[in-house]
Amino acid sequence: xxxxxxxxxxxxxxxxxxxxxxxxxxxxxxxxxxxxxxxxxxxxxxxxxxxxxxxxxxxxxxxxxxxxxxxxxxxxxxxxxxxxxxxxxxxxxxxxxxxxxxxxxxxxxxxxxxxxxxxxxxxxxxxxxxxxxxxxxxxxxxxxxxxxxxxxxxxxxxxxxxxxxxxxxxxxxxxxxxxxxxxxxxxxxxxxxxxxxxxxxxxxxxxxxxxxxxxxxxxxxxxxxxxxxxxxxxxxxxxxxxxxxxxxxxxxxxxxxxxxxxxxxxxxxxxxxxxxxxxxxxxxxxxxxxxxxxxxxxxxxxxxxxxxxxxxxxxxxxxxxxxxxxxxxxxxxxxxxxxxxxxxxxxxxxxxxxxxxxxxxxxxxxxxxxxxxxxxxxxxxxxxxxxxxxxxxxxxxxxxxxxxxxxxxxxxxxxxxxxxxxxxxxxxxxxxxxxxxxxxxxxxxxxxxxxxxxxxxxxxxxxxxxxxxxxxxxxxxxxxxxxxxxxxxxxxxxxxxxxxxxxxxxxxxxxxxxxxxxxxxx
Length: 522
Description:
48% of the residues lie in helices and 14% in strands. It has 522 residues and is of the alpha/beta class. The radius of gyration is 26 Å and the shape is globular.
């Protein structure tokens, strides 16, 4: 290769490296700097099928051969043939254009160059530069640069691991500030966890308490150490009586660590279910992780509609805790919100406080959890009955509206799970319609080995409504195709599906938007 050709290849490899860093830094940021996510998502984007699913459905598989796969084949062929110049050129092409569909800028939000992201990028860049420089002194000068381009995801994972001790020390400073503020303001802390329903329950409780003032809830899904400490440091003003802290977890020990410095007086557990199975593997591990929230609480509010949580009642009471059993369908619950003919009945310790019209999109069980916590805080029953009338749904969680076109739109795009999907489909089937019912979904994620089977069931339930199924992206398309059992529509992006809905549905029709994948999923 002549000098001009060598310079051109070097420039292409440098550009490819920059593009790969932009793509994979976004994935790392979206995955909350979990170093394991790099290889997991590399497998997803490198395969036409979902990586890690244990049981594939028995149906014609959807295996698109994309540009990414063509480049992967070419890279492997160049390595086998020891055609290193060709390998450099093909690697540059892969780095610039692949994985196909993984956006450089992001469709739902650009890369945020936070201090942490800059630190990871700088360290990863330094490691890659060392690899490229070492390769330059070999008989194949581009080989190091080729490795640097292809190894961007694992190098980012390694860099994140190396920087973790520094990040831990920095985070602990913010925790220290939050502890100081908590001691000074001294609010009653209500901590809420669960596989799902946390944010909705937090929202309902804040509305039930809002008439008394002095209530602060952690915003949005700020439910880890960084989010909670930030919520406290920025929002916990003097005079705050109640702080409602949503607490999430990706594994055992995390909630225990949160409650060690943000100790709740009241703990609320909404549900145990197959969410984050990809990380926590089994429901038993999820249950043990959620149970940690009870350790420092004096009062525990349990959704006993959940069979696993119902088993906690006696052990917690034996441990000296005050336990308030709540639910919607379980007759033994002390606080119940029942639904009949679109009317709610509020029942506390066997006494029916009264009925009121259902607010579509407000889940009775989650509302019961909020009512149980409000009663534990001393709000009287008559006040609660009045305030329940003003409870509103949470954005993107089963919101039902009628568009100007007359089409009924159900928005349940935020973090759908098997349980919430069943509820959403029940709402869709219950609508009094004269026309079509359509479900637009990418399917359900983070379910580990259960992901294919749960998406099979989801598609079967859509067919049973009956509703037309529109699948977005390809993460779960194989399972959804198999479960639906008849022709369906597919789109690569949700905006394409939305455009089709707007051009196809008319007054009297309804569409359910179920779940919305982050754009770093294929």
